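Our preliminary data section would be incomplete without showing what the modeling component actually yields. Below, a chain of 174 amino acids is followed by its predicted structure, encoded as tokens that our downstream tools consume directly.
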Amino acid sequence: MSNKQGSSITSLIVGAAFIVSAWLLYTHISAPMAEEAKASELWPNVPGIITYSDIDESLDDGKTIYAAAINYDFTVENKSYSGNRISLTSGNTRTSSLREVKKDLQKYPVGANVTVYYDPELPNNAVLEPGADFFTYIIKYAPFLLGFFGILMLIRIFRKVAILALALFAGSRN
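Predicted structure:
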């Protein structure tokens, strides 16, 4: 097998893997997350209170990374719950921007009264800011980019095959 054939087979396998991965990511992660974000706009809400608000600091490859660590308590049908997410995607949002984290902390200081939106089927699934945010849309549409690259790889392969078929056809006519 020549190196070009090996490269074509590899491109075919990788391109197909990109497309399948994109489909799996979209159907099992991206779309459900976007649907939950949309559904959260209709979740019932109750009053809550911020019980903890501080900066979570960690090192990643020698760089300081920050996150807002916020906890709040709320009650649904006489049962107490605690939450820690600002939005559906903010649970683990980390950034190198201390200023961004301080903005969240200013919005949610300890003792502040807040409105808590909760999933009526799972009240412990709660947020302070319902709906989709920018990160939700990135997660939703990122698999399309992966699939697009897979399609480009397959088009490249099919072009090579078409050129080879035309050359063989033209050669057989001579």
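The CA atoms of residues 12 and 171 lie 26 Å apart. Residues 134-173 form the longest helix (40 residues). Preliminary results of this kind motivate Aim 1 of the renewal.
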